[in-house]
Write a structure and sequence with these properties.
The protein has a single domain, classed as Phosphoglycerate mutase-like (Rossmann fold), CATH 3.40.50. Helix content is about 35%, strand content about 10%. The protein is built from 12 helices and 8 strands. It has helices at about 1-10, 55-60, 90-95, 105-125, 135-150, 175-180, 185-190, 230-250, 260-270, 320-335, 350-360, 365-375; strands at about 25-30, 40, 80-85, 130, 155-160, 250-255, 290, 315. The strands form 2 sheets. It has a 6-stranded mixed beta sheet. This is phosphoglycerate mutase (2,3-diphosphoglycerate-dependent).
């Protein structure tokens, strides 16, 4: 399955099968309370020459490149937004609850991030700035994506309000083992329901965020556990104070985030009822693009339908609905199907074929990409 999904994603970025022929930017402090933590700050440097979004998208298309139905979000409306979940981290690979723990990308996660960047590059989307969390699985995904779209120059803003939800006492535990101990329905409530948080994290927990120096000035703000409702409350502050004003200024934004924090923002954007949000899951490293109206409400997809992968969304998966559907089905089995003993992230029979395919799609990483994805290591 994984190879099939990879081939579909690769085709979505325009690669053939190998078997076939002006608004002041905001300076964001990482710390502070709501209602005064965000301040305007004029970026230094000269303003680049302005082109229309249509000209930009057209100019980025190479001769002979396949014309996609979804060429760019930068048309039909000045209000454009794209969500992207980070690539595979070490604890995604190991099927563990992560939360605020700072787990790095795996080699496969680097490939996932680069393929996501290829999708965005082929779409013709041009971003004005990126917003992400304080966790390096998102930060490195952002760096890799910007290299692929050749937009390393745009501002990247990081903030704790875009961190993953805190999974409390579950952090570090294996998800499938937790299902065996507590049952599928209980774990699903903890992971996906609106207002049922996991058990609280004790103060001496091995992975308590208070041990992390990046939170040393905001220890009193660290939650012991979070439901999606509580995650939505903190992400809404960032949306209202930062994202919404930038969108209304005509900026095209990329938000690189974590599954539950992105779910909280998408829930609000789409108006998904709290009783239905339990059924919304998001794949890693597949961009979800939105066109918005002047009220920052989603404009219908070109086909006028909701996405087939989740059945909830008016945004468009740049990897295609079917590929996303297959990824989500694999992720469901990885957590809830206790009859499957192997780790589908590591023991999939097609894993090496998938990795070889991804390498073929994106090419061997150059010295710059290797240096940025593996800081501290010398590029080969």
């Amino acid at each position: 399955m994984r190879q099939t999904v990879a081939i579909r994603l690769a085709r979505s970025v325009g690669f053939p099968s190998r078997h076939s022929a002006g608004h002041p930017a905001r300076h964001l402090s990482s710390y502070g309370r709501a209602g005064g933590e965000f301040q305007n700050h004029q970026q230094s440097g000269t303003e680049p020459p302005q082109r229309t979004h249509a000209q930009s998208a057209e100019g980025s298309r190479q001769p002979g490149q396949q014309q996609r139905g979804f060429t760019s979000i930068n048309n039909r409306t000045p209000y454009n937004l794209c969500f992207l979940r980070h690539g595979q981290s070490t604890w995604n690979r190991d099927n563990r609850f992560i939360g605020w723990t700072d787990t790095p990308l795996t080699d496969d996660g680097v490939l996932e991030a680069r393929v996501a960047g290829k999708m965005l590059k082929n779409s013709g989307i041009l971003f004005d700035e990126v917003h992400t969390s304080l966790l390096r699985r998102c930060i490195r995904t952002t760096n890799l994506v910007l290299m692929e779209v050749e937009q390393e120059y745009i501002p990247v803003h990081k903030h704790w309000r875009l961190n993953e939800r805190n999974y409390g006492e579950l952090v570090g535990k294996n998800k499938k083992e937790t299902v065996k101990l507590h049952g599928k329905e209980q774990v699903k409530q903890w992971r996906r329901s609106y207002d049922q948080p996991p058990p609280e994290m004790c103060d001496h927990h091995k992975y308590h965020p208070a041990r992390d120096p990046r939170y040393r000035q905001m220890k009193h703000l660290i939650p012991k556990s979070e439901s999606l409702k509580e995650t939505k409350a903190r992400s809404s502050v960032y949306w209202d104070d930062v994202i919404a004003p930038e969108l209304r200024a005509g900026k095209t934004l990329l938000i690189v985030g974590h599954e539950n924090n992105l779910r909280s923002m998408i829930m609000r954007l789409e108006g998904i009822p709290k009783e239905d949000i339990i059924n919304l899951c998001l794949p890693r490293a597949v961009p979800l693009a939105y066109r918005l109206d002047e009220n920052l409400k989603p404009i219908d997809r070109p086909d006028g339908k909701l996405d087939e992968a989740t059945g909830f969304l008016r945004g468009e998966w740049l990897g295609g609905d079917q590929a996303v559907l297959e990824i989500l089905e694999r992720d469901r089995k990885q957590v809830y199907d206790t009859t499957i003993r192997k780790n589908l992230e590591t023991c999939d029979a097609d894993r090496n074929k998938w990795k070889d395919w991804m390498n073929l799609v994106v090419g061997k990483a150059g010295p710059e990409a290797q240096a940025k994805s593996n800081p501290g290591e010398k590029a080969a």
